[in-house]
Design brief:
The complex is a heterodimer of chains A (326) and B (188).
Chain A: H1 11-30, E1 34-35, E2 41-42, E3 55-60, E4 63-69, H2 74-82, E5 88-95, E6 107-116, H3 120-134, E7 142-146, H4 147-155, H5 164-174, H6 187-199, E8 208-215, E9 224-226, E10 232-241, E11 244-251, H7 256-273, H8 282-290, E12 295-301, H9 302-309
Parallel strand pairs in A: 1-5, 7-8
Antiparallel strand pairs in A: 2-4, 3-4, 5-6, 6-12, 8-10, 9-10, 10-11, 11-12
Chain B: E1 3-5, E2 14-17, E3 20-30, E4 38-45, E5 51-57, E6 61-63, E7 67-77, E8 82-86, E9 93-96, H1 98-101, E10 113-119, E11 122-127, E12 131-139, E13 152-157, E14 162-166, E15 174-178, E16 183-187
Antiparallel strand pairs in B: 1-6, 2-3, 3-4, 4-5, 7-8, 7-10, 8-9, 10-11, 12-13, 12-15, 13-14, 15-16
Classes of the chains: A alpha+beta (326), B mainly beta (188).
Pfam families (chain A): tRNA-synt_2
InterPro entries (chain A): Aa-tRNA-synt_II, aa-tRNA-synth_II, aa-tRNA-synth_II/BPL/LPL, EpmA, Lys-tRNA-synth_II_C
Organism (chain A): Vreelandella malpeensis
Chain lengths: 326, 188
């Protein structure tokens, strides 16, 4: 048997990758955003119901502990913000169990940055500017869409008011799923399927597409606000390029009580679904209690941006050693 | 049979879908930014040969299909069924229906080994070897000296297949044919 020891990326690609990463650092240096490095391991993990965290056991001066590998550097970076760091960015190794494919790798690089005092609108502009600074040949007009409008235009349904039965039927039909497979599924699952399978592939074609006003239930660590129709929505955006989701930004939630409530709701949902519960990050909550400056933050999948910038077919083409060959 | 979860769906895995055995061709993770993950799966239905796409929630599972490929020699047909014998020395025989035989009927030759796909020990498809040697039983007379020029004509082979052959080929000659494309390769 031949053992596959060679890199999954060509050496020439890794050279190009290094050049693009240098552009990221130059972009933030120019804007006076501080580069930071925070731990990959944490005593609390992400409670996000749809992320599976890896964990490990570590021996410290206080004995054996379970430590979680971060799914993004968000919690540590927010603690820096609460401690008065000002604007910060990080190229952070992040881990999401089970995520392997043409656009996913269990271990990946998240480019995450936070801008105290900046509005979500201004951060959308900055995110688009970053993408074009890294890949000037991909410069395109930026088009904003409301989540709700995309469903109206492409599927003739309303994500908030169309009956669940209709959404289940539509999702099963468009996803080529067996008709009974969605009968017990939530509105969220149906919307995720329609967004991921039908709408996403159409976004970011000849433009940078920005989607705003996600359902309030998909707020995660973002604030909520009422949109022009009086509907509660998440103060969150996603940026798409060539049908690929590149970045996810929030008007950051700074309310410690609200944040604790959302973590607990996540864990309740985890119990209901039979998933492992995750220790809530008490240090993050204490930092929010102390006070984190209001502002916006965004996480961008750097490997995906590099993949698109270099015109590669699969994520592993820009990773020295993709997880299956690590 | 065991159940297989979406993260075990690899190319070639045999699973049951809507009552038919299927072979997985491709499996791709689709995950919106902050939500439920799905697997977009391409499957080949082993009864019909058709390839289709289906979506599963990540973590969903399918029952495995008891499917295996065995090498067997063609023996004879009684008109209703086509009879094959395992080449492992067991002399065990299997009868194959016309429906399972499909297009392979026109490539049958005694004592040639075929790949028989069994589902629950019943033959559901027969795959001929990539290349097979067959005799020409009918074609227009060959053109003498025309060994290099282009041009072709139909020739009926002993198995019943009709293939395009060069003009110089004569009745009674044995030809090597590619069963995948149905094209003439050379004189045997």
């Amino acid at each position: 048997m031949t053992i596959e020891w060679r890199p999954t990326a060509e050496i020439e690609t890794l050279k190009a990758r290094a050049m693009l990463t240098a552009r990221v650092r130059a972009f933030f240096a120019e804007r006076d955003v501080l580069e930071v490095e925070t731990p990959v391991l944490g005593q609390g993990g992400s409670t996000d119901v749809h992320l599976v965290s890896l964990s490990t056991r570590a021996r410290t001066d206080t004995g054996q502990h379970t430590l979680w590998l971060q799914t993004s550097p968000e919690f540590h970076m927010k603690r820096l913000l609460a401690a008065g760091s000002g604007s910060i960015f990080q190229l952070a190794r992040s881990f999401r169990d089970g995520e392997v494919g043409g656009r996913h790798n269990i271990e990946f690089t998240m480019l995450e940055w936070y801008r105290p005092g900046m509005s979500l609108e201004a951060l959308i502009d900055e995110t688009a500017a970053l993408v074009m600074a890294v890949a000037p040949h991909l410069a395109r007009p930026v088009t904003r869409y409301r989540y709700r409008a995309l469903f109206h235009e492409q599927l003739a349904v309303d994500p908030f008011t169309t009956s669940l039965d209709t959404l289940r039927r539509l999702a099963a039909e468009r996803g080529q799923m067996s008709s009974q497979s969605l009968t017990d599924e939530s509105r969220e699952t149906c919307l995720d399927l329609l967004m991921g399978l039908v709408i996403e592939p159409t976004l970011g074609r000849d433009e940078l597409s920005v989607v705003v006003d996600y359902p309030a239930s998909q707020a995660a660590l973002a604030r909520r606000h009422q949109d022009d129709d009086g509907q509660w929505v998440a103060s969150r955006f996603e940026l798409y390029l060539d049908g690929v989701e590149l970045a996810n930004g929030y008007d950051e939630l700074t309310d410690a009580d609200e944040q604790r409530l959302r973590f607990e709701q996540d864990n309740q949902a985890r119990r209901r679904l039979g998933f492992q519960e995750v220790d809530v990050d008490e240090r993050l909550l204490a930092a929010l209690e102390h006070g984190m400056p209001e502002g916006a933050g965004v996480a961008l999948g750097l490997d995906r941006l590099i993949q698109l910038a270099l015109g590669k077919a699969r994520l592993e083409d820009v990773l020295a050693f993709a997880t299956p060959r690590c | 049979m065991a159940n297989y979860s979406t993260n075990e769906f690899k190319g070639g895995l045999k699973v049951m879908l809507d009552g038919d055995p299927c072979s997985i061709v491709e499996n791709e993770l689709v995950k919106p930014g902050k939500g439920q993950a799905f697997n977009r799966v391409k499957l080949r239905n082993l009864m019909t040969g058709r390839v289709g796409e289906r979506t599963f929630k990540s973590g969903d599972s399918l029952e495995g299909a008891d499917v295996m490929d065995l090498e067997m020699e063609y023996l004879y047909t009684d008109g209703d069924m086509w009879h094959f014998m395992k080449t492992d020395g067991s002399f065990e025989q299997y009868a194959v229906e016309k429906k399972a035989l499909g297009d392979t009927e026109k490539w049958l030759k005694e004592q040639v080994p075929y790949t028989i796909t069994l589902w629950n020990d019943k033959a559901i498809s027969v795959t001929p070897p990539n290349f097979i040697e067959l005799e020409v039983v009918e074609t227009d007379p060959g053109l003498k000296g025309d060994t290099a020029q282009g041009g072709s004509k139909p020739a009926t082979l002993s198995s019943g297949a009709v293939v395009r052959v060069p003009l110089f080929i004569n009745q009674g000659e044995v030809l090597k044919v590619d069963t995948r494309s149905g094209e003439y390769v050379s004189r045997a």
